[in-house]
Every structure is written in structure tokens, then in C-alpha cells.
Amino acid sequence: MDKGATPADARSFVVTNRSVLAIAVPMTLAYLTTPMLGLVDTAVVGQFGDAALLGGLAAGALIFDVVFTTFNFLRSGTTGLVAQALGRGDELEEQAVFWRAVLIAVVAGIVLAALAPLVAIAGQKFMGAEPRVSEAMGVYIRIRLLAAPFSLINYAILGYVLGRGEGGLGLMLQLVLNGINIALCFLLGLKLGWGVAGVAWATVTGEFLAMLLGLAIVVRRFRAAPSLPRHRLLDMAAFLRMLSLNRDIMIRSFSLLAAFALFTRQGAQFGTVTLAANAVLMNFFLVAGYFLDGFATAAEQLAGRAVGARAATPFRQAVRLTLFWGFGLAGAATLIFWLGGAGLVALVTTSLDVRGVADIYLPWAALTPLSGVLAFQMDGVFIGATWSRDMRNMMLLSFLVFAVALLTLAPAFGNHGLWAALHVFLLARGFSLLTILRLRLRTAFS
């Protein structure tokens, strides 16, 4: 993407396959480093041969992910607002959006770091695990939450970079972050023998160093741009708009978490083996999601820029091309899972019972990329366009539809019904947003 826009050329950009892939490909690679980091954490702690340490790490990571999902809006919300400012050719607003996001990140991060002991205690009570697992979990949470200000600022930095359409820079920052983290995991966790504490300190250090690098890049860029007046940064209406956008994205994220939690809870009602098989199969959907997220990110930036420029043609091009690539990737993933899923299940688990059950429900899992791709892409479009209220409302509606499907289908058809309800949820999300999109197009660019 170009390095900037001016009022004269803000409306003139064209969305092409190349512009979509320039964002989607590097960000897909960046997103794939996240599960790799999780594998390294697990492998390092696993070398100690203590199941309690592994359990504490897994439980602590789960609590941490739930807490930080709340603040993911700092990435996606910033992307949409920066992309729209880029589309308008408003360099000052690009800066202002970034610094507003950083202010929110600093305040929220300090609060989270201060509340780390309480979060640890709450997590331990919620999990109700054995004492040694709870102890390891508490150590992990208390240390890792010290990185909260750095992590949230990194969300803002990545949101700004992606809002500019600079997928390559976003990939570099994520590689630096996760590369430092992985290297320090081995050094602190394994070589120095710090175990769970070493893994947590590796994250704190990696987030801090990545933040310094990201801020250095962004601040250097701002020095070459017009100076930002203080009144522009502290524009209360703009702050309220950002907070409203962030609130809606947060509600959407919690609803999504609640749906997956209900799916897991219902699976547990069908027995331990079925629960384990569902967990194995859900990894197929999650892996496909990392790939689909790359094209959803492209949709955020390109749709947001088009809305900022009030350019209907590029907006339609962005929707059409990101959907084209998204459905193509989803179809390929479904084919791979359908044909090779049994082998992949065998790689994940050695339990013959779990393998047998997983093979029965494999077709349901294999189809999740296709049923979910529209939801991923529409989320990207609506976040970029900052139509957050519509996205929030359609998510709540879809969650209600999912709950009804779950209560109806699971008792009647068992685990088949549970998987069918998940597909209903994904399809409801995608098609409800597509319906609203058609209504929005009638007024958004008039």
C-alpha cells in the first residue's frame, strides 16, 4: 500500500488482488506465529516432566486469553479508524487515533498489572484445580500480567500499522515479538530452569522490546509529518466515538467466547471421550481461522479506507475480492480436512477411543471453514467501516439463534446436533451481517 494519502488522491485508489494479498499474506503468517509460541511454551514446561506445571501453564494461559480478549478492540478498532483517516487523507487524525489508543492502552494496562494478584486468585477459584496446579497458574498470571501495558500498546501499534495497510511491517513486528519470546522461553524457562516463571518473564520481556521497536518506528514517522495539536488529540467527541466502537467490539468478542464456552460445556455432557474428541476437532476450525483472519484483516483496512474516502467502487471491490479469496481458502481447507483429517487426528492424540469418536464427527469439523468464512469476512468489513453497532447486534442475534439451536438439536441428535448448532451459529453471523451490509450500501456512500 502507499505510504500516505492526500485529499487529492484519497478517493482514487483501486482495490486489486495484489492489494488484498499484500495485507492478507503477511498477516496470515504473523497470526500463525501465535500458536507456534503456545507450542513452545508447552514444550519448554513439558521438559520438566511435571503434569502440575503443564496444567498450571494451560490454566493460566486460558485466564490470560480471556482477560486480553476484552482489549482486542485496541487492535481492530484502531485499524478501522486509521484506515478511514487514510482514506480521507487526514494525516493528523491518523496520529490522533494512534495516540488515543495508546492512552487507553496505558491506563488499562496499568490497572490490569495492579490487579494481577486478584486476577490470579479469581482464576484459581474458577478453575478449582489441585494445589500445585493452582500454584503454578498463580505464578504465571502474576508475572505475565506485568506485561499488560506493553501488550496493549503493541495492540495499538499493530492496529495503526494495519490501518495503513502495511502488512509487511505488521509481520515484522509480530516476528520480532514472538521470536524474542520463543528464544527467551528456552533461555529462561529451560536453560536457567525457571520453568513456568521463565515462560512468563519471556513474554514480559518480548512484549516490552517489541513495544520499544514499534514505538520507535511510529514516532520516527510522525516526526516527518505535520505536528499534532493537543486539542486534536484530546477531542472528546473522537474519544467517545472510539470508546463506543471499542465497547461494541468487546461485546461482540464476549458473545463469541460465550458461544464457544457453551459448545464446550455441552460437549462435556456427552462424556469425557466426546469432550476430548470435540477439542481435537475444534483445532481444525481454529487453524483455518488463522488463515481466514488474514483476509478479514485485509477487509478491515480496504473497506475502512474506502469508507473514509467515501468511495463506493473500492468498497465493493474490497468486499468482493476478500470474499473471493476467503471462500477459495476455506474450500481448500475443507478439502484438506475432509481427505486428511483422520491422519491429522492421529497426530494430535494417541488415544484410540478419542480417535474413533473424532473420526465420526470429522465431516462436521471439516465444513466449519466454509460455514464460517462469511462471518470472518463480514466482521472485517464492519470493523473497518466502524459499523460496530450493527456487528454487535447481529452477533447478539446470532448467539440467540445458536442457543435455540443448541437446546433443540443437541438433546435430539447428541453430538451431531451440537456440531450442527455450531454451523447454525456461524451461518447466522455471516448472513445476518451480509443482509445489513446491503442496507448500509444504500446510504453509506450517498
From TrEMBL:
Kindly state which keywords UniProt assigns to this record, in alphabetical order: Membrane, Transmembrane, Transmembrane helix
Which stretches are transmembrane? 20-40, 52-74, 97-121, 141-163, 175-194, 200-219, 239-263, 269-292, 323-348, 360-382, 394-413, 419-439
- What is the protein's membrane topology class? Multi-pass membrane protein
Query: Would you say which domain of life the source belongs to?
Result: Bacteria
Q: Where in the cell is it found?
A: Membrane
Main localization category: membrane
What Pfam families does this protein map onto?
MatE
PANTHER family reported for this sequence: PROTEIN DETOXIFICATION 44, CHLOROPLASTIC (PTHR42893:SF46), PROTEIN DETOXIFICATION 44, CHLOROPLASTIC-RELATED (PTHR42893)
Q: Tell me its family.
A: Belongs to the multi antimicrobial extrusion (MATE) (TC 2.A.66.1) family.
What name does the UniProt record give this protein? MATE family efflux transporter
Question: What is the species of this protein?
Answer: Mesorhizobium newzealandense
